[in-house]
Amino acid sequence: MKKVKLDGEGAFHEKDKKNKKVNLGGPSKNQKKTSSSVNRNILKTRDKKRKDNKK
Fold first, then answer.
1. DSSP letters along 6-47, please?
2. What is the pLDDT at residue 35?
């Protein structure tokens, strides 16, 4: 079978004008975190101490 040669420059070609990406300012990766991480072990020992002091 003969291979049919496609017109154009293959995989490397300019994007069509309609397919150019426009940055509309969507979600960014450098937003502030809403809350910091929590060390549950410290919270557990703190609660245990408070509970022991109430007795």
1. PSS-TT--PPPGGG---------TTPPPSS----HHHHHHHH
2. 78
